[in-house]
What does this fold into?
Amino acid sequence: MINKLINKIQKTKAPIVVGLDPMLSYVPEHIQKKAFAEYGETLEGAAEAIWQFNKEIVDKTYDLIPAVKPQIAMYEQFGIEGLKAYKKTVDYCKSKDLVVIGDIKRGDIGSTSAAYAVGHLGKVQVGSKTYAGFDEDFATVNPYLGSDGVKPFIDVCKQENKGLFILVKTSNPSSGEFQDQKIDGKPLYELVGEKVAQWGEEHMGESGYSYVGAVVGATYPEQGEILRKVMPKSFILVPGYGAQGGKGKDLVHFFNEDGLGAIVNSSRGIIAAYKQEAYAKFGAENFGDASRAAVEAMIADIQGALTAAK
It folds into this structure.
């Protein structure tokens, strides 16, 4: 799957991923009204509104981008109905040939970790048959429990030709409370990066990149430059662009000299673009067109920064 992701990035010339992280407040009123008219102001109605919102954004952007990243918590808040919308979103994106990164941030051990891995990336045995549960292409994993929590995911990825992005240095302001703590003179995030690189060396794709990648926030460009050198063969998923403050010029060092090695995420900066002054002209009725314009602007920003850095 890492090879497909790289091929899609090269084809689109867009090393970006759209974060499908819908809050109900992002969904325009006309979408909500239609869903509530059919299902009432219920969890089912909310899930329908989110699904229709996602579908429109995907329809307006899929030809520009290589991948999407739905964040499962935004769906779980609506219970089972929300998870159904999550699954419909995953399936629809795959029908458009988009790579789907399930932002699930799971982290457990033993049979529990294996069950998470099977549910999201693998197949579960039911009698004489097997079924794919959520069936994302990649998943995000929290490595706090060590190799015991990561290895079951790696095993399933090997079987199913899928991939991982392991949390190394996250974009949030308080990430340093743990991730920056020094151990034998090195910050913890660097030690985690070294472990990701080790796992990656054992699981390489034809592209020369591993299917074991890392998450490193755009809000920490200096750490990103260090970690790029620590993990030369690991793809880096970079959250924190746009709404969290990251700009194209901050991201140059996340990439390798081949122009690959990183994929940058923007969530509300794209899916709620119509609420921004820059895209207000589109209006709520044309929110999908606003999202497309935001994608185009993001591609231009990142490509411009990469070109200037050469």
Notes: The first helix runs from residue 2 to 12. DSSP finds twelve helices and twelve strands in the chain.
